[in-house]
């Protein structure tokens, strides 16, 4: 192997800025799909009480996004092949954002269930197309590095948001308990 071969190989192994941003964007989208169930579950009791839902209906609502993700992920991949992976990924991202906002504004349990199901459809596009986009973006020599960074980003970001959602609500609730005035005995 000559010095020129080594330099060429070294240049091929480096990721460009656009490739790094692609991996980061796909990792963040993938992280949303993992963090959402924990975030929604941590707020399930106040949602259930606020919308006067039964425990069974609340549990079903919590699983709706995952159920619709599983039911639609193959269709999302097919649409990505037909209309373009990037375009369909952005449709999925917009769907997650819009359905999440509508879920937050739900006036009743039925609307919440519908919006959670739509969130799952958006998750199918994010989950199904993120790795496909990475595979299409990177040559085989760089895929291992790109997929490692993709999964690392998704794991770290998703874990951080899951922790924040479950931890901060309990910390502020506990702080309110200790800081509230107590009656004298």
TrEMBL record:
GO MF, any single term: transmembrane transporter activity
Topology relative to the membrane: Multi-pass membrane protein
Annotated TM spans: 17-35, 55-76, 88-105, 111-134
GO cellular component entries: plasma membrane
Alphabetically ordered keywords of this record: Membrane, Transmembrane, Transmembrane helix, Transport
Pfam families: MFS_1
PROSITE patterns the record matches: MFS
Record localization: Cell membrane
Keyword Transmembrane: yes
Keyword Transmembrane: yes
InterPro entries: MFS, MFS_dom, MFS_trans_sf
Start and end residues of each Major facilitator superfamily (MFS) profile domain: 22-185
Predominant location: membrane
UniProt-recorded name of the protein: Sugar (And other) transporter family protein
Organism of provenance: Mycobacterium kansasii
